[in-house]
Amino acid sequence: MNTYRTAEVAAIIGIHPNTVRLYEKLKLIPKPERLSNGYRVFTKFHVMQCKLVRIAFQVEILQNGLRKKIAQMITVAATKDFDTATALTKDYLKQLQQERNNAEEAIKIVKMILAGDESESAQCLKRKEVSEAPLNEYQTILNNLRDGGKRKTVITQMFRHKRLADALCRLPEQRCKMRPNF
Asked: Strand, helix or coil at 171?
């Protein structure tokens, strides 16, 4: 069985040795055995677990508890409870797919807005109503909005991201008559 010291694991993964120690402290990897001189002795499992941690936390989607779910999966995997880790991973992938579907729906809506495809009747919704609306209702919501401040507010709430709303609001006046008011 191959064993590794902290610096060797760090070199294999491409991280600083203190990061390996941090992973141990956060229980993202199992606690390694120690030699009589106090040095940590890592195994191939530790190396693979460190690689898993690095890959998992490269994901940039932070909303709806995705980061917490992947952290929980990694912590469970570190305890070698692979059945539970597999179930958590499946749940994570399911939610990740839903986030992807949400993003694709948002892209469709943005394309619709840019094309000027919306009607003129007004509908004013609270942020909670917009955030809880099923995806298939977003098109209906947009079709019931007027140009101006209400449209900008709903777009901001729909995307829950100020930068995207700002980008939409910076479009030329003839294509999008909304301006940021944050």
From this structure: coil
